[in-house]
Amino acid sequence: MEKVLYKLNDRVIMKKPHACKTNEWIITRVGVDIKLKCVNCKHEIMMDRLEFERKLKKVIGE
Questions:
Q1: Which residues pair with residue 48 across a beta bridge?
Q2: DSSP character string of 27-60
Q3: How far apart, in whole angstroms, are the C-alpha atoms of residue 21 and residue 48?
Q4: Are the CB atoms for 22 and 12 separated by under 8 Å?
Q5: pLDDT computed for residue 3 by the predictor
């Protein structure tokens, strides 16, 4: 599997949209867990790195 490079404050596109109808998120914490903030409604979620990499579609950058 290809190694995905992402860092703090990167914008990412997830495979499924959030309840507010956007699938664009900003990474606010990187570690064992990844914390994401929804660009549209500012809702924050945390998920483990493996789950994040499975659900990630594309890294846009800062």
A1: 33
A2: EEEESSEEEEEETTT--EEEEEHHHHHHHEEEEE
A3: 23
A4: no
A5: 66
**Over the stretch 20-53, which tens digit does the pLDDT of each residue have?**
999 999 999 999 999 999 999 999 999 999 999 9
Domain boundaries, the chain: 11-61
First to last CA, the chain: 24
- Say how far apart CA 30 and CA 46 lie, in whole Å: 10
Question: 27 is written with which tokens?
Answer: 């990474």
Amino acid at 58: K
Query: Within the chain, what is the greatest distance between any pair of CA atoms?
Result: 32
Residue 35: how many CA atoms within 13 Å on its side-chain side? 9
